[in-house]
TrEMBL record:
It comes from the Bacteria. Belongs to the DegT/DnrJ/EryC1 family. This is Pyridoxal phosphate-dependent aminotransferase. InterPro entries: DegT/StrS_aminotransferase, PyrdxlP-dep_Trfase, PyrdxlP-dep_Trfase_major, PyrdxlP-dep_Trfase_small. It holds the Pfam family DegT_DnrJ_EryC1. GO terms for molecular function: pyridoxal phosphate binding; transaminase activity. One of its GO terms (biological process) is polysaccharide biosynthetic process. Keywords: Aminotransferase, Pyridoxal phosphate, Transferase. The keyword Disulfide bond does not apply. Signal peptide: none annotated. The active site is at 192 (proton acceptor). The modification N6-(pyridoxal phosphate)lysine is found at residue 192. It comes from Flavobacterium fluviale.
Amino acid sequence: MSSKRIFLSLSQQSGFEHEYVHKALDTNWITSGGPNVDEFESSLQNYFDDESFVTALNSGTSAIHLALILLGVNKNDEVICQSMTFSASANPILYQGATPVFVDSEEDTWNICPEFLEIAIQDRIKKGKKPKAIITVHLYGNPYKVDEIHAIADRYGIPIIEDSAEALGSSYKGKKCGTFGTFGVLSFNGNKIITTSSGGALLTNSKKVKEKAIFYATQSKDNAIHYQHSEIGYNYRMSNVCAGVGLGQIKILDKNVKSRRENHKFYKEIFRNIDGVEIFEVVNKDYFSNYWLNTILIETKNQKNKDDLILALEKANIESRPLWKPMHLQPVFEQYPYYGNKVAEKLFEKGLCLPSGSNITQEDKNRIKEVIINFFK
Ligand SMILES: *Cc1c(COP(=O)(O)O)cnc(C)c1O
């Protein structure tokens, strides 16, 4: 195979990453925490432009874990989680020894379903336990039904951890994703909107909570001359070298969102004339998606299925993937409660993610288009 591989989701560089990384090396700030980390946090705080306090961490998964700890989630607690997501949304519930309760998606946004969320909350309360937190996800960058979901959570007084790992640059009714929950979570993994190689952030609206997050993320050192610990600590702080990459990346955050949204237009144009294939789109103007990944559903009445398309693309050295397999179908989670009506199952059965990186060129698009058009001919 001679053509270069087109990956599902890669970022591009601004060119400024070197400068900040060199600064870390030249000043010997090769540590967790440091000046690049502080500057990265304040750049993000400026970007969110509201009351958000940002804690830079070594991954999005760490951010979810710390959010659960800060909410006091422990063994014997239950935490509701959107079933259709990446496993990193749910794994930290088990790190705490708590029980995940999974909730189905709805068809408009593919995210957590308000009706089943309320059914789940009521049923868990009836069974004797009010859920301690709800983990919501803006899947593929597409905002969930923020107003409905938060109204339900507020009615029962349950805090929301908003997994915005895929949704940096997305917004709902003009307000940025990541700022709706009691906690917001970002990821800067290599495949996300901007990257620090590996990294994440926790958003809160309280300076005190941010300080507590840093305390836990840096091994819970009490205020003493010697190392004194009265709580369990974690090694979750972002590295100063990685934050240098992030400072270069944040300069092109808007540009990356623009490229991904252009990819969306490209796919929309292709699938407009293909029968039995539906490209995911936000339902109305309240929802602004970064279109982190472009996704399609291939109707089962169609002669072709998603697995064949994956193979056809693979043959041309182009990466594609099925949608996230719902958590309640995963061997590691199938023993836990689930509330829903098979919406996530159906999406998983018919759905596919197409190459959507912010580095995709016109030449790449031509290759992708050719395979897709030939496949459905
Ligand atoms: C990537 C991702 C995470 C985890 O982020 P990491 O930085 O890889 O730990 C969490 N949730 C979702 C939905 C993600 O896509």
